[in-house]
Specification:
This protein has 104 residues and is an alpha+beta fold. The chain has a single domain, classed as GIY-YIG endonuclease. It is 40% helix and 16% strand. The protein is built from four helices and three strands; from the N terminus they run αββααβα. Strands 2-1-3 form a three-stranded antiparallel beta sheet, with helices on one face. It is elongated, with a radius of gyration of 17 Å. The mean pLDDT is 91. It comes from Camponotus floridanus (Florida carpenter ant). It holds the Pfam family GIY-YIG.
Length: 104
């Protein structure tokens, strides 16, 4: 296939919105300070973000790190601008990538 045709074919594809991506390592930034959260999911990112957002409604013993930060500081995360750090379909490799980005 000629290079020109390949470029046309690639440009024609619609890219997925971040929230529609699966099997990823992602980063959420706090809107009010420099804290960030790094996680991984095999599901659609929108599903995982919804869980993070709703976790604050659960009993305090079940609060996530994100919910604790939101409650203790009055801050909130930038739910509309998650950063995709890595795509990986294999769970163990995704977990290793998550650890790498947390330590970075």
């Amino acid at each position: 296939v000629p290079k020109k045709l390949n470029n046309l074919i690639r440009r024609g594809k619609d890219s997925l919105h971040n929230n529609d991506k699966t099997s990823i390592v992602y980063k959420l930034n706090c809107k009010d300070c420099n804290l960030s959260y790094i996680g991984q999911t095999k599901r659609h990112l929108r599903t995982r973000l919804k869980e993070h957002c709703n976790n604050i409604k659960l009993h305090e013993s079940n609060h996530s790190v994100i919910s604790k930060h939101r409650l203790e500081s009055g801050h909130d995360f930038d739910w509309l601008k998650p950063n995709i750090l890595h795509n990986e379909k294999y769970v163990r490799k995704r977990e290793i990538a998550e650890m790498f980005f947390i330590k970075k």
